[in-house]
Amino acid sequence: MATVNTVLGPVQASELGFTLSHEHVLLSAAGVAQTYPGFINHQAVTAEGIVELKAAYDEGVRTIVDVTTFDLGRDIALLEEVSRGSGVHIIACTGNHLAVPRDFTFSTPSAIAPHFIREIQDGIEGSGIKAGIIKVASDRGGITPPQEIVLRAAAIAQKETGARISTHTWSPDRVGDAQVRILEEEGVDLNRVYVGHSNDDTDLDYLLGLLNKGVWLGMDRYPGGRTSETPNWERRTEVVKQLIDAGFAQRLMLSHDNSVPSTNPSKEMAEERKDFNPDGYLFITRRVLPRLKELGATDQDINTIMVGNPRRFFGDA
User: Fold this and answer.
1) Residue 269 has pLDDT above 90, yes or no
2) Between 3.40.50.1980, 1.10.150.20, 3.40.50.300, 3.20.20.140, what CATH number should domain 3-314 receive?
3) 37: cis peptide before it, omega within 30°?
4) What is the structure's pLDDT at 153?
5) Cα angle at 198 between 301 and 222, to 5 degrees?
6) Closest C-alpha to 119, from 82, 153, 148
7) Residue 317 pLDDT > 60, yes or no?
8) Transmembrane residues, as ranges (predicted)?
9) pTM metric for this prediction
10) d(CA 50, CA 85)
11) What is the pLDDT of residue 270?
């Protein structure tokens, strides 16, 4: 069985257990911690991250994939400390989110890819902690030229290292289709590609089209429904059941896109956050999975999605 890099070292894919496939601990922006020291209370974020993930561990969560890229304020030392303190495996990423560095826009995929490869093979920022997945992102309106450069660089890195690719998309615009086309052009094995945020829409034609291409679907924005143009968590869960009924339980993964607050929020913001997702990293465990069972999903379906699929995605599926 293959191993996957976590922030505490390589782990057998068979040992990942119940996995949340798209999460964050600290979510910020590149350079904030260094430029404005003290703005982010790292001690408080670390402590809260340990508390929240320890609670998740106590209810069965064993691994999270933290897709926080450097432009989202990746803090690899913090992830290491939170993993050690909570007992939850954390898979960190290389790659880039939506804030593509200006320098990248004047570069080429072949010039950028070695830096992704180094973070996978040698470690991140001199820490020795190796990335376990490559993150790329495109959003409303489709793939911008700078994002295409990053996407093609990720493809080069994937083929060189075998690391998996996780994408951020805006599914109402079918952005996953465009990402997959480019990855196909670059010769990436689509069995190594996870198309994220695929539950921001209910278009079964789009979702089934992606699944028939051979990718994995991340139904990974729970609870969802923060805006009127995206479905609430109940509707998202109905779509998951429809995909199970269509025979694709073995290609789905679930997650929240959750994070720990990076600053001390106002009372109003804290209440809004709690109202939106009262269960944090446990919303799926406490609400979505019971609802799936009410809709007719079996224990085997749920185990396949939450345990078997991450194992096969990072293993030798």
Assistant:
1) no
2) 3.20.20.140
3) no
4) 99
5) 70
6) 153
7) no
8) none
9) 0.97
10) 6
11) 80
